[in-house]
Each structure stands twice: as structure tokens, then as C-alpha cells.
């Protein structure tokens, strides 16, 4: 499906990468970029990533077939209220937020059946347009979260948009999404931040200098934007806190097994985990940062 | 310090990489390799990594200035008993095990003051000589664990050996080592195995397909050799179980903070962790696998 005009709100890592990928995969598509920051818009223009930039939401959505919200989740409701009256009847809106129940609950009353939530499962511990790259979505999963109310045509538009950018699409409910990502994304982030904190507060200052690759990789995403992640963890707090309690219980149980020197149980546990990990066709580090 | 002859016991990932690095940094050093497997020794010979290979421990250590034990920790005591009578008076012995108190306690009575424990903090989730590489130690930390009994000359020999291979050396007690690595290495491994198990057992089978880079990196080392890691976790069980209980408590506390919607506390926690993570001069993924 060709896109005539796409409006991107928030030209950061995700928004900037969408503009770059669109330029590459759909060179005829016109790109309109909104930001509240004039400076960010100048940067977008300098990089040749937009045909039109604006700090005015109404101007940004004018003529757009598709609006993609790439701002922090907390900003989406007010933006939607501000541009909703200026959308065409056929304009489809999607977002890229890392939580879906709260976004969908807030935006459907404002935007109606033409809104479909989505969540590209890719990114970087770095943020901002300087970290954006054309292939960020290539081969990466993208979760799309329609509800019973969603317009089927809008769902097709959003699906074809992410497919165009190279994503592997999965469709699930907003609730299913939040349950899943609490465990495969938010929990790994929480573990990374917590592990850094544990090492920083319980060991001498130079201890991390002695760490090898396992600590580096386990904590890579602890370099992520704290305000973005505070927002995500708070918005998905019910599922994240369940996942944290589940993980906490499993660690205690592993500690007990070790204390009882149950070598066979430990070996069995590690063997099954390795088998599962080996069976996963995870994206290679080259595919997603 | 030039090395005339080095004996390597166990030509796997670590032992094989030592042979490759020695060939590169000290081309005149003779390399003797011991393995209980004829097949592994043929592989070593084919790759040109040894001047002499043997399944006989006495033959392997003959004429060696330095013996490096790269086998699993559980095998070291019996090997030491078997080759100890055949060492020269000046032969120094070190090992590369991931735990140090138990190794040092077992080997000093057998090998005396010429034994110095060491632990190169590098590796890979892959194992075997096929995963070995010349630059495995380059820029990576190496912890050396002398005791009050250690011969200072033996300590200098072992230090200069790892420096020759490109490692960054830190010296600490066996107890200090086990406390430290329980947190910066064994805990990250335990978290990786546990996170894979949690996702595998509580989500639909295809869920990990929807995971992004954070899950991939958080679980990379869950692909490590289970029997090697069962051994390490059991040998260092006191410190590892303390670290697991500490981590478990911190995750519960984070869950409570989220449930109470204390957004400021969450932001503060994430900000401090990010600052600490950003301050670490960790090895880049290019330097250690």
C-alpha cells in the first residue's frame, strides 16, 4: 500500500528512524514532522527527513494518510485532543508506545475506530534523533493491538506500514501485549537497572571494572533514558510488578536449591533454560541495536 | 618476561584462546597441551596450536615454566595430584577457574607456594576450541588471587603472563574474588537462566519471538554450557545465594514502589543507575564476545 503523506510526532530515536526508513522504502511518500522543539525540527530538516516540519499539530496532520505518535506515552492524550479535529475522515492514527492498555483506553475515545496501537520491539539504550537509523525496524518484531472496535481498514493500513518498514508483525490484544512485554521487555530493563544499583551500592567503586561481558550485556539497557522508562514502568505497573514478584520468587527458589547443594536440580534447570534459549530465533545484534 | 614453555590443560574456549594468544604474543614459547580427549588433541595439532600434545599429565608438564589449568574446576584437584611430582622446582601453576576459594584451598596443599589462582573475566556463551580466539583476553579484566603464602616470584610470573596476553590485571584475595564475581558475573548468569525459564514457563511458546534486543542481551549467557555453570554456581554457592537473595529483595522493593505509584522514586532510582552504568568503562562487545 503506497503512503501519500505520513505525519510523525516526536522525531527521536523511533520517529527519526521511521522517517529514515520511509525515505528508503517509500521515496515518494511525503513526510510531515511535528515536535514542540524548533531545534529538533531544524535537525530533522537538515537531515532531509521531512518535507514539512511544524510545531503546530493541526498543520502537521493536514493531508496525512497516517499519523504516527512517537512521543512519550504521557504526551499522547493531549496531542490527540489537539489534532483530532483536523484529521481527514480517512486518516489512520497509530502510536509506538511501549504500553498499550492505557494508550488505547485514552486514545480511542478521542480518535475513534481509526486508531490502532502499535509497538515496534526495537530501540536502543541511546535516545534522540542522533541514534536513529534506517534499518532499526528491519527484521524486528512489531506488536499491533487492535480491539473489537478497530476499523479493519485502519488495521490493514497500520500493518502494511510496519511491513513496509521491514518489521515482523504480530497482532494481539492491548491486555495481552502489556502482559507479554512486562516479561520480555520491561522486566529485562528493570533487572538491568537493579543489577547496576546492586553492584554500585554493595561493592567497591572499581568493581565493575573487573566485570566481563555478562555484566556488560545484562546491564546494557540500564543506560536507557530514565524518564522514558520511569513512564513505561509506571504505566504498566500492574503487569510489571507481577513480573518482578514472579522473578523475585524464582531467584529465592534458586538460592534455596543452591544452599541445599542440589547439584542435579541446578544442572537440570540450567540445561532446560539453555535449550530454550538456543531454540529462539532472536534478532542478531546486527539487526537491532 | 619470556616464557620458554607453557603447558595448557584443557584446550577449550579458554585454553585454546590462550594457545592462540601465546602464538601471537610470544612466538618462541613452546606450547604443550594436555587433554583427556585424543580427538581434542588432534584438533589442537591440526590448528598448529601446540608443539607437543599428550593425554599423559607427566609428559605434558615436563620442562614447563608455567602450567595453566583451563579445565572445569571440579577436575583440577585430581590433575594437580597427578602432575605435581613431575614439576620442576621453579614451575609455576595457575588456573582459570571462575571460583577461587575452593580452588586455592584444594591446590595449595598439593602444589604449594608456586600456585597462584587467576580468573580471566572473559569468555563466551559458546564453548570448545571452535569458539577460541586470539584476542579473547585483549583488554579484558583478569583477577589474580594470591594468598599470604604465595611465592612473590610466582605471582610476578602469573601477572606477566596475563599482561603478555593483553589482560588488565587486578589482584585480590580468593574470598574477595568470590564475593565480587558472585555479583558481577555469577548473578548476571543466574538472572539470564532464570529470565529464560520465567518467559518459557509463563508465556505462550512463540512469545520470545516478539522480544527485542533487551531480552536477547539479558539472556545471551543463558546459552552457556550448563554443566560448567552448574559447577560454578555450586562451588560459589554461599556468595551466589547471598547475591540472589539480595537481588530478590531489591526486585520486591521495586515492585512495591511501582504499586504505590511513587513516580519520583522510580525516576530517581533509574537516573542513578543510568549515571552509574554510563560511568563504567566496560569492554565493548568487539573486545570480548
Describe the structure.
The structure is a homodimer of 289-residue chains. Chain A is an alpha/beta fold and 289 residues long. The first copy, chain A, folds into 2 domains: 5-172, NAD(P)-binding Rossmann-like Domain (Rossmann fold, 3-Layer(aba) Sandwich); 177-279, 6-phosphogluconate dehydrogenase C-terminal fold. In chain A, 51% of the residues lie in helices and 12% in strands. The first copy, chain A, is built from 11 helices and 8 strands. Chain A has helices spanning 13-25, 38-46, 57-61, 73-83, 101-111, 152-164, 174-202, 213-218, 226-235, 237-259, 263-279; strands at residues 5-9, 30-34, 52-54, 66-69, 92-95, 115-120, 141-145, 168-171. Chain A has an 8-stranded mixed beta sheet, sandwiched between helices. In chain A, helix 4 (73-83) packs parallel to helix 5 (101-111) and helix 7 (174-202) crosses helix 10 (237-259). Chain A is elongated and about 65 Å long. The first copy, chain A, starts with a strand and ends in a 10-residue tail after the last helix. The mean pLDDT of chain A is 93.
Amino acid at each position: 500500500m503506497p503512503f501519500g503523506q505520513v505525519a510523525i510526532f516526536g522525531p527521536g530515536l523511533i520517529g527519526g528512524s521511521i522517517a529514515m526508513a520511509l525515505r528508503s522504502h517509500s521515496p515518494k511518500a511525503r513526510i510531515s514532522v511535528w515536535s514542540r522543539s524548533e531545534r529538533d525540527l531544524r535537525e530533522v530538516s537538515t537531515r532531509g527527513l521531512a518535507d514539512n516540519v511544524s510545531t503546530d499539530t493541526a498543520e502537521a496532520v493536514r493531508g496525512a494518510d497516517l499519523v504516527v505518535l512517537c512521543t512519550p506515552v504521557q504526551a499522547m492524550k493531549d496531542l490527540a485532543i489537539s489534532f483530532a479535529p483536523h484529521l481527514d475522515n480517512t486518516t489512520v492514527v497509530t502510536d509506538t508506545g511501549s504500553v498499550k492498555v492505557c494508550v488505547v483506553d485514552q486514545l480511542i475515545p478521542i480518535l475513534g475506530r481509526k486508531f490502532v496501537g502499535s509497538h515496534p520491539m526495537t530501540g536502543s539504550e541511546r535516545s534522540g534523533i542522533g541514534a536513529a537509523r534506517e534499518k532499526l525496524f528491519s527484521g524486528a518484531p512489531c506488536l499491533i493491538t487492535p480491539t473489537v472496535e478497530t476499523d479493519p481498514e485502519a488495521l490493514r493500513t497500520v500493518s502494511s506500514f510496519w511491513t513496509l518498514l521491514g518489521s515482523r508483525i504480530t497482532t494481539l490484544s492491548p491486555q495481552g501485549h502489556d502482559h507479554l512485554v512486562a516479561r520480555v521487555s520491561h522486566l529485562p530493563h528493570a533487572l538491568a537497572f537493579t543489577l547496576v544499583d546492586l553492584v554500585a551500592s554493595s561493592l567497591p567503586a572499581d568493581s565493575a571494572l573487573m566485570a566481563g561481558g555478562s555484566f556488560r550485556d545484562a546491564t546494557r539497557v540500564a543506560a536507557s533514558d530514565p524518564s522514558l522508562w520511569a513512564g513505561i514502568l509506571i504505566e504498566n505497573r500492574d503487569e510489571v510488578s507481577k513480573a518482578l514478584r514472579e522473578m523475585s520468587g524464582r531467584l529465592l527458589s534458586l538460592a534455596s536449591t543452591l544452599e541445599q547443594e542440589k547439584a542435579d536440580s541446578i544442572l537440570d534447570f540450567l540445561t532446560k533454560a539453555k535449550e530454550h534459549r538456543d531454540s529462539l530465533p532472536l534478532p542478531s545484534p546486527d539487526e537491532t541495536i
